[in-house]
Amino acid sequence: MFEDFSVPLLVCYERGCPEFQLTIIWLVVFVYGWHV
Length: 36
Known about the structure:
Elements: H1 3-15, H2 19-35
C-alpha cells in the first residue's frame, strides 16, 4: 500500500515541494490506508 506512494514522495521531496503539498500527500495516504 505505502510502497505505491514512496516513489512520488521521494521525487516530490527531491524537487523541493512545498511542505503543505507533502502534508496533503501524507493526509491522502493516511485516509486511503484508513479506509482500505
